[in-house]
């Protein structure tokens, strides 16, 4: 499927410091694309360039094949086809949920306003909040209203800037499901900005990892998790074992790489096979046990269903690090 929004070789600098360097990515209708990276990596600046709210220094953004203009070339910046759901909601206070959504539809007929509002209330399961004042809503409810407002005029592209930062885990989990459902049902291309890899894995069809203004890895969640390629990417997804070249063979790995990584859950312990390996510590983590095992003069972290006293190690899979 052809992309609805494309960024090609986007570069941006502030006061002589590059914050975005040669960024290229595309968004497809019906998919959720996650832009993943730590704070200060340039995510929000890229989002504003994609929306036509900030000029890039070089490169271009195409909306359905046509170049979009930034503020210096457009009297009123932004495009109706591209909408943004902000981290801080940006809702109208002292107004009801109904009035907040209606505010985005004032240029339409009253009949269309009512029809569209009811559709959005149903889509985000907030019919029961229709007449409630915004100030009385929870964080999750406010975010649903904010997304409803952003979707009011049926944009082709929805850009979401850290939409879960103010939410509890329960609200976040249900909203992640609803965002995937939103993309599929409405054929909207969604770009979701986050620093949380757990959110990215749950919701993304594709992930782009941004670090110090550069895209350093792109792929599906499965592709990136199984083969992060770079240590900075692997670190985003949690603790892992780093094995230097001189120690690779000790673990039965056949690789000429200078360095490999192993996720702790990809190590099996066979207690029925005699071994010199020794358990250093076990910590109960809720869904698993974190076992630290001494093996071949290495400290290996393994995630298992219980503590292990000793046993041989089997590496199910590993990834090569550049």
Main features:
6-stranded mixed β-sheet, 322 residues, 4-stranded antiparallel β-sheet, alpha+beta, 2 domains, 31% strand, Rossmann fold
Question: Rough shape?
Answer: globular
Intertermini distance: 32 Å
Average pLDDT over all residues = 93
The CATH architecture category of the largest domain equals 3-Layer(aba) Sandwich
- Looking at CATH, the homologous superfamily of the largest domain is P-loop containing nucleotide triphosphate hydrolases
Q: Low-confidence runs (pLDDT<50, min 5 residues)?
A: none
Structural class assignment? alpha+beta
Q: What is the strand tally?
A: 18
Q: Could you estimate the helical fraction of the residues in percent?
A: 25-40%
Structure annotation, total helices: 9
Q: CATH top level of the largest domain?
A: Alpha Beta
